[in-house]
Amino acid sequence: MSTGNLLELTRSRTQIVFFALTFLLWGCAGLSGNSNQGAEKVSQACLVKRAALDIGSGTSKLVVASVNKCQRTIDHTIFEAHRAIPFKDALQRSKDNKFNSAIQEKAYRSLVELALMAKSQGAKEIRAVATSAFRTAANAQEAKNFLEKRLGFPIRIITQKDEALFAYNSALSKAKKKIKTATKSNRPVVVWDIGGGSMQIVQPQKGHDPKIYLGKLASVSFKNKILEKYKSKKRSPNPLGKKLAVNSMNMARDYANKTAKPMLGSLKDYEVLGVGGVHYFSIRGQLQKQTYNQNNILKTLLQRAKLTDKEIGSKYAATDVTNLALVLGFMQALSIQKVTPMKINMAHGVLTTEELW
């Protein structure tokens, strides 16, 4: 073969290889693009806008969020709101342990307002869970049916254990990226949830199911216990006074020593996340701190013990100061050094529980 023919053949082979590589790269790019588009479609198919209601014993909370139903996670929160509905107080003031028509009507008005807010944010579906007050009311099923029929969405009365696990899983899910930053620690995490009518503490156990403390002393029930013992003719314990503030703290500590400590022991080696309205709104709001310890709370308790409801200036004034005594007493009994409050409620757990949708 002549030199000229050899050069021509080499040039032709080079061009063929070049075109083959170009075609291959284009094909890969196309496949990659299709793959990305497919992943995006799958991702979009997994995302759904939902609204969930936590019908608590003193407050009902709404959360509207974009939820990844495939991964069972909250992609991002869109809207939150809450309304005071004093179910527990109404129940404890009744003579027959029933929700009267007045509290049911108030509940309907407040819940329909929250439902309209959810729909205005684009939520197509709403689910709700009811907690402590509905577990104990003699006419809970009738009240539930009354609300469901008028509201147009289902309400599930959950057990206290379910309530504890909803809060625990929601807190850990939301805190995955925040725990180390917030606590600067790799210690195991306890989730402490206080509502109006019940208290739950979930303590992880290596290689075993977590221990779950299910307590009956909570924000409203503790306030009522203080009223019953010291101020029976009043609806609010305020102004509490320094002596009664200390007595209330001791009452909470004694109760925790008898009921919670035998199960949980000392929690001094745990990071404690506080969830629910008592921790996030009441204690955090009064202390104006992102974390709090026993000294913070004691100082604030003694300062605010002299305030009247009007001076406190909150919808929840009747329980705000006694909440400080309740939390401090439990911290002392369980050797809790510090609490990091998180904005978590049952609604967050409802959003990612596919069995409810």
Topology summary:
Blueprint: H1 3-46, E1 47-55, E2 59-68, E3 73-84, H2 87-93, H3 101-120, E4 125-130, H4 132-136, H5 140-151, E5 155-157, H6 160-175, H7 179-183, E6 189-194, E7 199-205, E8 208-215, H8 219-230, H9 242-259, H10 261-264, E9 271-275, H11 277-287, E10 292-293, H12 294-304, H13 309-312, H14 317-334, E11 338-341, H15 346-351
Parallel strand pairs: 1-4, 4-5, 6-9, 9-11
Antiparallel strand pairs: 1-2, 2-3, 6-7, 7-8, 10-11
Descriptive notes:
This protein is α/β, with parallel strands linked by helices. It has 2 domains: 47-157, ATPase, nucleotide binding domain (Nucleotidyltransferase, domain 5), CATH 3.30.420.40; 170-346, Exopolyphosphatase. Domain 2 (Nucleotidyltransferase, domain 5, 2-Layer Sandwich), CATH 3.30.420. 54% of the residues lie in helices and 20% in strands. It contains 15 helices and 11 strands. It has helices spanning 3-46, 87-93, 101-120, 132-136, 140-151, 160-175, 179-183, 219-230, 242-259, 261-264, 277-287, 294-304, 309-312, 317-334, 346-351, and strands at residues 47-55, 59-68, 73-84, 125-130, 155-157, 189-194, 199-205, 208-215, 271-275, 292-293, 338-341. The strands form 2 sheets. A 6-stranded mixed β-sheet has the order 8-7-6-9-11-10. A hairpin with a 2-residue loop joins β7 (199-205) and β8 (208-215). α8 crosses α14, α9 crosses α14 and α11 (277-287) crosses α14 (317-334). The longest helix is centred in the first third of the chain and has 44 residues, at 3-46. The radius of gyration is 28 Å and the shape is globular. Residues 2-32 have low confidence and may be disordered.
